[in-house]
Amino acid sequence: MDKVDVIIGKNSWLKFENYKKKYHKILVVVDSKITNLYPQYLGTLLEGTNYVKFLITEPEKEKNLSTIEELTIKALGFNLTRYDCLLAIGGGAIGDLAAFFSSIYKRGIDFYNFPTTLIAQVDSAIGGKTALNFQGYKNQLGSFYLPRGIFVDPQVLKSLEDDDFYGGLGEVAKYALLEKEFYDWLIKNLDLVLEKDLVILEKVIEKSIKIKEKYVKGDIKDTKGQRIALNLGHTLGHLIENQHPDYLNHGLSVLVGLDFALYLSYKLQILNKSSYLQKKFLINKLLKVVGEFNITNYHYLLNKVVTDKKVKGENLQFVAIGEKGFKVITLDYQQFENLILEYSGDFNDRN
Asked: Ranges for the 3-dehydroquinate synthase C-terminal domain (predicted)?
């Protein structure tokens, strides 16, 4: 994996000063919320540069080919060359979109990522995956393209609403289920995490990034059976994400997916009961934010699981959790449907 500069800490964005001097022009793809929340921050970041902004107002809805066409028109009108660069400032959807565009414009230009949500800081900004949605299906188009630098400032997390913050913790919980040492540390510090203590959050981000880099290293294109561990909780998560009736965000959907992955691991005797209940403790704590959510409301989506990127032949691939790490299992559709129906009956028993 190519070296990517990852700079974490208070005011880390300002260290872009050391990079921006090499570019004549900068295209800034930014969430409109960020321009309203942090105008002075952005002003300092871009001071002294020749830049143009491309505002995104509904990131997940705009993560599509139409926006790529609009971005191309904007870049050409600005005469952005292959020796210039792009900044992605926002959450995971902004990063996915901007990274995809950077990978194809002029056959690839430099880009820098400034993730502003917890889920982007610990997960989507790391690892080089880019993505677009297509005709209602999530992340069906994409490429692998690494940024030149990632600037992570935990201060911006203070403005996150609960759904977005807990959604970010969904990805953090994934890392905790994969790595016992991190799980134990997270449980010990969970109260401070939920209080958004900035010192603890910085450690959460650092530890999460190290775990993700461990699984990505040597398997950047997800072909060697190592990086697939990071799909834990995502098969069901992607299925229900932003769907009627609850419209859960990515991270909250992954939390439900993690709960199902634990259930599946226990039912298939990959995980013993004691470990199952211990690991569910964290998921139960975080799932409280979804309130009256009922998984049975999503049975109408089950047949769409066959569009998941992890489908192999006629079978679905799931990442399960065992006593000593992850295990990839395959299920046919009928097995999956039977397990999800059983799980649905038990879902609301989260005590």
From this structure: 168-311
**For residue 347, what pLDDT is reported?**
67
165 part of a folded domain: no
Residue 348's pLDDT is what? 52
Count: domains in the chain: 2
Q: Tell me, what CATH number does 153's domain have?
A: 3.40.50.1970
Which residues does the chain have with pLDDT short of 70?
A: 1, 309-314, 347-351
Domain boundary among 158, 192, 217: 158
For position 310, what pLDDT does the model report?
61
- pLDDT, tens digit, 9 for 90 and up, residues 293-334: 899 999 999 988 877 766 666 689 999 999 888 999 999 999
Domain that holds residue 294: 177-346
